[in-house]
Amino acid sequence: MNTQAPRENTTLPLLPLRGMVVFPGTLLNFDVGRKKSAFAINESMKADQMLFLVAQKDIRTEEPTAENFHVMGTVARIRQLLHVSGENIKVSVEGLFRARLCEIVQEDPYFVAAVEPCAETGRAPRAATAQALLRQAQDLVGEYTEIGPKLPEELLTEIVAGKEPGKTADYIASNILPQQEDKQTALEELSPVKRLTLVLRMLRHEIEVLRLEQEIAQKVQERIDKGQRDYYLREQLKTLAEELGDQSEADESARYHQAVDKLALPEESAKKLHKEADRLARMPQGSHEATVVRSWLDACLTLPWNKESKDKIDLAQAQKVLDAGHYGMKKVKDRILESLAVRKLAPEQKGQILCLEGPPGVGKTTIARAVAKSLGRRFARVSLGGIRDEADIRGHRKTYIGAMPGRVLTALTQAGTRNPVLLLDEIDKMCESYQGDPSAALLEVLDAEQNHAFRDHYIELPFDLSDVLFITTANNIDTIPAPLLDRMELIELPSYTREEKFQIAKRHLLTRQLHTHGLTRRTLKVSDAVLYDLIDFYTREAGVRRLERQIAALCRKAARVIAAGEQKTVSVGPEQLESLLGPHRFRPESIPSKDEVGVVTGLAWTSVGGETMPVEVAVLDGSGKVELTGSLGDVMKESAMAAISYIRSKADALGIAHDFYKTKDLHIHVPEGAIPKDGPSAGVTMATALTSALLGLPVRRDIAMTGEITLRGRVLPIGGLREKSMAAYRAGVRAVIIPQDNQPDLAEVDKVVKEHVRFIPADHMDTVLQNAILFPPQAGTARAEAAAQTAPPLPVPPVAHTSAPVVEQ
Predict the structure, then answer these.
(1) Apex CA 708: angle with CA 657 and CA 791, to 5°?
(2) What is the pLDDT of residues 412-470, one digit of tens each?
(3) 460, containing H or E segment
(4) How far apart are CA 89 and CA 74, in angstroms?
């Protein structure tokens, strides 16, 4: 094998290697898959079959460049070439001599490099030095063979027969050293003695690593053997304890068997529990698996399989319970009493699931507690807000670390009976995630056809949920999936009116806060006017939570004065409110002081009740641009576009210039621009404001409206009429234009509102414009005459203290 290096420089095809280093005097077989490498091999075969093999610095690089090559490589001759499937080539090369990469003279379609042959350097070693190094190499290879992987016999023979330090170093580095970096370092050393010394140092380090691995494996095996030995000894101790009558450990399994027998469970469930109790008896006392089985048995046995409370349905008592805890809410109370009456007459009827929908703070949770109290059942609550894992409902598989039952069965365990009133709170705030859809897991829980055999993933036994009275709560049913909503009967809890808030504060909130703060009605006297002012000027909400907090603030300030001995009694009147609670946070809302052009009072529904929403329109000379401001949502923007299109189609009939959309700029603005607004009920308001601005005629200040508009001018129905009408009443509006299709909803409007506000049904924009815009009577047109006929005198505005919420600063 000729490995002598020529003295002159040469140009050869370059083949980059990944994870391999070729040494002179060695044979290497490898696969070639890259196109550049295949071109280089084919070009070499056409010439003298010579290649320059050099290792890549980073084996992850798929398309290397000159900067990614090591400088030192090996010139080799192709010994054998074999084309396999696809574009892969199997090649066998023979390393000839070391060479240094001078430059890359070609990159496409393959690398061509100018290389400089490298001869060995340094003086020839003394015979004794060479022999000592070779013997040390033989000894280290033998030591490596004892603790490392077995080496082929021919490799050991070649090392024993080696006479030259340089070739022996190359042979050891090529066949034994595992790291590419170590091989490249050995290739770059040109002195034979230094190279063999370097390789022996690397081999000694590899032997130390192998010894450490062997010690670690031995320690692991010793621990395993110790565990098996401990298990054997525990089993012996258990047998001896049974023979001697010491049944402390053996009795644990028997206790579980007795507990299962007392429950009188169905055959399938009892069989499963007995089987797990038997398994526990055969396990080591301190093993992890025994802990898992023990926890599972405890969870199963604490479930209320056969414990239930008897219903004590007394409709008169139930009425008292509901009235004592809640003021008003007649429809809600009637629906709950009807449900209780049906349950009394037909106890076998199951699957009735009520969903209480309403804004925060209107008493949904307390209604559920009142239902449980009136039935004589236990009460349990499960908060579903923010749940995104299906396992929270169904439980975790018990094989996982930290597994536990789902929230439904956990709540039943806490209630202690199998038929409690179970409140699923905030059912509209569950979320989907990669961990599953919890709302889908609730489908089985709330389905009377399935929940008689509900299987929790942790318990794995069928549990009957059909006797549980489920009550759910939600702030907005729009986010509840349709299949889940279909399983529930919806009961709406509307926002409280001003009078209802006053009665609730006077009857319930004030009494509760006085007791909480150690006060009585004698030590703290709060007038009715104070409660009204708290409602009007310090709160903005659909419920009464903030109102209760304001009452609590008054109680705290009174408690401080009384506890300090400054006064024995405290009386709070409206004139003291600002000094105690600060300036008014909300201003009274009222209608405009005069009839204005392009200004219309609309009505909007919010999560805290209804409010007025004025819409302003300005018509400016321009080129037909439309500007929408006021933080409007997509639906309101579309309503504005629909209103403009309707006016364009009716321009001649309305007396508006037919080319206004070319010569005028329209600016539609809804005040309080920082507050996002959206919803399908502003189309009528925008169309009226636009018509007023284009005609230059004022709109009646004491009229409000709500409704959506079509391109043909039809008025579409809306929701939230009760809350919107209450907002109009508070603001002093004398008439409200509503869609014709919303007339049945007037039955839900408060009586006091209907006494002071006239409702004008409209099925077309013509009716809206006739009643809202003040057309000049002298015009003598049919439109003005119709307006005069359809706009009878309005009632006297309500004489009451009015206020409407605005954004709290």
Answers:
(1) 70
(2) 999 999 889 999 998 888 877 777 788 888 888 888 778 888 888 888 898 988 888 89
(3) none
(4) 20
Neighbours of 293 (CB within 10 A): 17
Report whether CATH 1.10.8.60 matches the domain 498-581: yes
Q: What is the DSSP letter of 669?
A: E
The secondary structure of 763-790 as a DSSP string is SBHHHHHHHHB---GGG--HHHHHHHHH
- Tell me how far apart the alpha carbons of residues 649 and 640 are, in angstroms, rounded to a whole number: 14
Q: Do the beta carbons of residue 172 and residue 187 sit within 8 Å?
A: no
Q: How would CATH label the architecture of 10-117? A: Roll (2.30)
Q: Which of 37, 374, 439, 681 is catalytic?
A: 681
**Per-residue pLDDT, 161:** 73
Q: Which residues are annotated as a binding site for ATP?
A: 358-365
Write down the pTM of the prediction: 0.59
Q: Which of 373, 376, 487, 374 is nearest to 424 (CA)?
A: 487
**In whole angstroms, what is the distance from residue 59 CA to residue 50 CA?**
24
Contact between 512 and 466 under an 8 Å Cβ cutoff? The reply is no
Q: Which two tokens stand for residue 614?
A: 């004025």
Closest of 77, 76, 73 to residue 99, by C-alpha: 73
Ramachandran angles phi, psi of 783, nearest 5°? -65, -40
Please say if 219 is a catalytic residue.
no
Q: Is the dihedral of CA 422, 428, 434, 436 positive or negative?
A: positive
Q: What is the DSSP string of 388-449?
A: --THHHH---TTSTT----HHHHHHHHHTSSS-EEEEETGGG---BTTB-HHHHHHHHT-TT
What is the C-alpha separation between 519 and 551, in angstroms, rounded?
A: 12
Structure tokens at 417: 């009976």
Strand-pair category, 89-106 with 379-383:
unpaired
According to DSSP, the residues that pair with 116 across neighbouring strands are: 100
Q: Which of 501, 677, 724, 803 is catalytic?
A: 724
Residues 788-802, mean pLDDT to the nearest whole number? 40
Amino acid identity for residue 482 in this structure: A
Type of residue at 556: R
CATH 3.40.50.300 is right for the domain spanning 315-492? yes
Measured over the CA atoms of residue 180, residue 184, residue 185 and residue 186, the dihedral's sign is positive
Q: Is residue 186 within 8 Å of 72, Cβ to Cβ?
A: no
CB-CB contact of 757 with 722 (8 Å): no
Residues found in the chain: 809
Catalytic-residue membership of 724: yes
- Domain residue extents for the chain: 10-117, 250-301, 315-492, 498-581, 596-790
Task: Assign domain 596-790 to a CATH class.
Answer: alpha beta
* pLDDT value, residue 782: 44
